[in-house]
Write a structure and sequence with these properties.
With 118 residues, this protein is of the alpha+beta class. The chain has one domain: Endonuclease, Chain A (3-Layer(aba) Sandwich). Helix content is 46%, strand content 14%. It contains five helices and four strands. It has a four-stranded mixed β-sheet with strand order 1-2-3-4, with helices on both faces.
Length: 118
C-alpha cells in the first residue's frame, strides 16, 4: 500500500520559497545545526501536513520553532500547529529569535538535551 503524501503541493511550494527567505535568526541557527554538526540530520522549512516547521529532525521526531514578535499575535495558530505535530509523534521546542541571536550556546545545549530525550 503506498504511503500517503506528507503534505500537499501548495505547502511544498511554500516551503521551497521559505528556504530562500530565512530570517537572520533562522540563518544563524541553521549554520550551527546543518550538515549533521550535532551528530543528527536536520531539515529546514520542511513541509509536514499543512504546516512548515522551521527545522525538523525526522529521525528523532523533533521540531525546532523560532519565534519573533509576530508570534505574540498568533498564539492560537502556533498552538494548533504544535497540537498537530504532537498528534503525529513530534516533540516541539521553541526559542525566541532574540535567544538565538544572543545566547546561541544555550540554544544549542537545549537542542542537544531535547535530542537526547527523544
Amino acid at each position: 500500500m503506498p504511503r500517503p503524501p506528507r503534505s500537499n503541493p501548495k505547502t511544498r511550494t511554500r516551503a521551497i520559497e521559505l528556504r530562500k527567505e530565512l530570517t537572520p535568526a533562522e540563518r544563524k541557527l541553521w549554520a550551527r545545526i546543518r550538515n549533521d554538526q550535532l551528530g543528527i540530520n536536520f531539515r529546514r522549512q520542511h513541509a509536514i501536513g499543512n504546516f512548515i516547521p522551521d527545522f525538523v529532525c525526522i529521525e528523532k521526531k523533533l521540531i525546532i520553532e523560532l519565534d519573533g514578535s509576530q508570534h505574540l499575535e498568533q498564539e492560537e495558530y502556533d498552538e494548533e500547529r504544535t497540537k498537530y505535530f504532537k498528534s503525529i509523534g513530534y516533540k516541539v521546542i521553541r526559542f525566541w529569535n532574540n535567544d538565538v541571536m544572543k545566547n546561541m550556546d544555550g540554544v544549542i545545549r537545549a537542542i542537544i538535551f531535547a535530542l537526547d530525550k527523544a
